[in-house]
Amino acid sequence: MKLEQEKIDALRLLVETEPKNIVILSHTNPDGDALGSSLAWGEALRGKGHKVTCIVPNKYPYYLDWMTGIEQMVIFKSNEEVAIKAAAEADIIFCLDFHTLSRLDEPLSKVIDSNSSAKRVLIDHHLNPSESFDVMFSYPEASSTSYLVCNIIVALWGAESISAAQAEVLYVGMMTDTGNFSFSNLTPTLYRTLAVLAETGINIPQIYNNVYNSFTEGRARLFGYTINRKMRLLRKGTVAYMSLTEEEMRRFWFQQGDSEGFVNYPLTIKKMRMSAIFIEHKDFIRVSLRSRGAVDVNLFAGRYFEGGGHHNAAGGKSFVSMAETIARFEAAVEEFAKEGLL
Ligand code: 5GP
Ligand code: MN
User: Which residue of 101, 146, 147, 288 sits with most ligand 1 atoms within 8 Å of its CB, as the best mutation to test the pocket?
Assistant: First the structure.
């Protein structure tokens, strides 16, 4: 990944002139990368004198609530008025860590659409960005948006401009989107970027503990239940799927974010090629997909579950019952395999 100089120049033109009203938006069910990239970029822009509002569609998981500055995040669902006002007044809207306004859900995407005069900038690493932007930092090969934001800040204002607080939240994004630096796209430049963060003196083991060792008892028990009782295998044990109904989650005192990461676990089995989890919500079932190697779950999610994401990590939605969702998944797996895609 190399940031093109003309894009950096275009961005500099936008953010180095007079103070502006700026909105930074990220995706539904904000994760470590969505939050880390938004918080760090917001802080950088505030440092340049801008008025910045960071908006996420809904609440973040409880184990990320220690992140510096997170209390300033405007959660659209619980604070619509503030978000609508900020979006209407914005001179620049930054879209971070998502590639299509449809990932924001209806009311918020309409609010953003209605401000037609704001400049729009995308900073993202998902495949196939769908809207047009005035400046577009779209790098699907980048392992996280936080990594992109870090490099953009370095390109604009130098590594010395990054504070320890910014480094900490950027590290969260880079760590969580790479499964603590275990997935693909672990390039030499990623480690150089990590060195920039480490130079600020951040406590890396503590960040790890804050994120990965801060769950509830209910989450640990739900995890055991899901793997032991709900994991089903297909195609000679090379495809796994799990499902959780609202009733099951209630039984384990479910809190938002508690099922995060479950979908990765079946891939610890040596011959596993693809893993899925179906999580029941009030109006739909959220589908999460993970794969190893050549198996393209971005394609799978787009074809069968109205979604997308990355080659080895994607998601989507299903609007039929759990039983029908599972039947559809099983049929889709067979079709995918028949085409030699699995
Ligand atoms: P997760 O399974 O962690 O929720 O999501 C994995 C990846 O798929 C993320 O990069 C996320 O942005 C993407 N993704 C998840 N759900 C959807 C969806 O409904 N639509 C699209 N386009 N991408 C999704
Ligand atoms: Mn991301």
Answer: 288
CB-neighbour burial class of residue 34 (10 A; exposed 0-12, middle 13-18, buried 19+): buried
For 171-203, the pLDDT digits (tens) are 999 999 999 999 878 999 999 999 999 999 999
User: For residue 105, is pLDDT > 90?
Assistant: no
The identity of residue 10, as a single letter, is A
Instruction: Tell whether ligand 1 has an atom less than 6 A from the beta carbon of residue 129.
Output: no
Those residues whose beta carbon sits under 5 angstroms from the ion ligand 2 are 33, 97, 145, 177
pLDDT, average across residues 105-133: 88
32 lines ligand 1 (CB under 6 A): no
Q: What distance in Å separates the CA atoms of residue 214 and residue 119, rounded to the nearest whole number?
A: 39
Ligand 1 atom with the smallest distance to the CA of 97 is 12
Residue in 84, 135, 88 with CA at minimum distance from that of residue 115: 88
Total structural domains in the chain?
A: 2
Closest CA to 148 of 180, 117, 121, 130: 121
Q: Among residues 319, 328, 275, which one has the least CA distance to residue 297?
A: 275
For residue range 113-126, list pLDDT tens digits in order. Answer: 888 899 999 999 99
Cβ(30) – ligand 1 distance below 6 Å = no
pLDDT band at 104 (very low <50, low <70, confident <90, very high): confident
CATH label of the domain that carries residue 49: 3.90.1640.10
Final residue of a domain: which of 157, 190, 211? Answer: 211
Joined together, the tokens standing for residue 297 give 């779950």
Sign of CA dihedral 204, 39, 131, 282: positive
